Amino acid sequence: MYNRTRLLFLLLVLLWACGPQQTVQQPPAPSPVKVIAPSFNADSAYEYIRQQVAFGPRVPNSKEHVACAQYLFDKLKASTPNVVEQKGVVTTYDDVRLNIRNYIASFNPDKKNRVLLFAHWDTRPWADQDSDREREPIDGADDGASGVGVLLEIARQLSAKAPAIGVDIAFFDAEDWGAKGGGPESEDSYALGTQYWTRQPHIANYTANYGILLDMVGARNAQFRLEGFSSEQALYVVDKIWKSAAALGYSNYFLLEQGGYVTDDHVYVIRYGIPSIDIINSDKTTRSGFAPHWHTHQDSLSIIDPLTLKAVGQTLLEVIYNEGH
Ligand SMILES: [Zn+2]
């Protein structure tokens, strides 16, 4: 994914700061939790991340990618019989044909009232933000494996205790083979697996009430800010998640601050017609707007912290189990 409209945001801040009526967003009052959600097991999520990383970089067209695909399919199958494997071919911006696989697991498949949770599972073929070994693929412990690890643990919880609503968990492929830079060449070069799925959803006319994307949700002291497209297109979902996180005591991770606009998988799910948000680690001190390990070899298992996984996973479970009552 890439972050390209930070200037726009700066302008927005200036307008806010200079406008005649200064708008300060107040923290929302914690909403009472009606249903006790299961306890998210962060050690389990961590183990799912470790296992993905152990395959090596999951770069499309590699044998490590195929091996991890089988692992993901087996793991989802252990939680629900309703797993669709979608195989396809997409072409990258640099004209490489990739054999991709998307996985969609469904819980309570007959419920009309549904939520879509998603993450990308592939890893970037290059460490282009690194000053060392730039042409080698990254481990992608945070960028890729963390979102999948959290969702595999949520799948396990959903199989143990059915929620009142339907939930679909999608692992999309080929998010991260995009053009560096964030200029026009980057346009639509990321999220190829998600774009494939929006052209050919796993179920004809598939829809959900809303979607939540997890991307880079495992690093120590992660900071989740209000991503621009999420706030514009699905503010009520942002509100729901951030309120839930606050009620659980996770406001140190879920900050009530505007972040940048990130062109990520959720943008294509929004275009498809499902209002969606992106929970993504951001950093105000870097030029990219992402944490310093982004697209470098620092993105390894050593930066993953179970406390962050717990904050994200428990917040999601709280929201899911309180829906539909
Ligand atoms: Zn990435």
Characterization of this structure:
By secondary structure, this protein is an alpha/beta fold. It has a single domain (2-14, 27-321), classed as Aminopeptidase. It has helices spanning 6-18, 42-54, 63-77, 141-160, 192-199, 228-233, 235-247, 265-272, 306-321, and strands at 2-3, 83-91, 97-107, 114-120, 166-172, 210-215, 224-226, 254-258, 262-263, 276-280. The strands form three sheets. Strands 2-3-5-4-6-10 form a six-stranded mixed beta sheet, with helices on both faces. β4 (114-120), α4 (141-160) and β5 form a beta-alpha-beta unit. It is globular and about 50 Å long. It starts with a strand and ends with a helix. Zinc ion (ZN) binds at residues 1, 124, 143, 176, 295.
Helix and strand sequence = EHHHEEEHEHEEHHEEHEH
Q: Which CATH top level class fits?
A: Alpha Beta
Instruction: Based on Cα principal axes, name the global outline.
Output: globular
CATH topology: Aminopeptidase
Looking at CATH, the homologous superfamily is Zn peptidases
Largest beta-sheet details: 6 strands, mixed
Radius of gyration: 18 Å
The total of helices stands at 9
Total discrete domains: 1
Strand arrangement in the largest pleated sheet? 2-3-5-4-6-10
The SS-based structural class is alpha/beta
